[in-house]
Amino acid sequence: MQSNLTTTDGPAVHVPVMVAAELQDSLLVVMHDLHRLEGLLNHAADNLMERFGEANAALANPVLGSSAELEAARSALRGAVTELQFQDMASQLIWHTTKVLQSCAFRLASEAMGHEEGEEAAPFAEMAPDRPNPVTQSEMDAGSVDLF
Length: 148
Prior knowledge:
By secondary structure, the chain is mainly alpha-helical. It has helices at residues 17-59, 68-83, 85-113, 124-127; strands at residues 2-5, 13-16. α1 runs antiparallel to α2 (68-83) and α1 (17-59) packs antiparallel against α3 (85-113).
């Protein structure tokens, strides 16, 4: 059985239904892996924040007094917390990529399998993200704040 993947103004591409199904399965596996990656990143970030909180509390102990080394340690700790913005940016990229893959998988299935009579097509335009890349920042400096 052959299927026609078409766009409203483009040429038709003939894709066997089994190939389309395998592609859709692969897209869904990648989406699942991205979801697991996001969970791992979130878990690591939560653990880091907890450890940074403990270190900050220990460094704030008045018994330690004040020295250049202690201030350097506090400064390094503040910089490390700033680096945790990476987790937020990575989560946004994972979410964006997952939505793009989901939209592709659903569109592929819809085009390859066709629609039942009376059944509406999935709203692919609503599922796909509006912007091509939600995170435009590629590095972070301590003390800077970038809204994205």
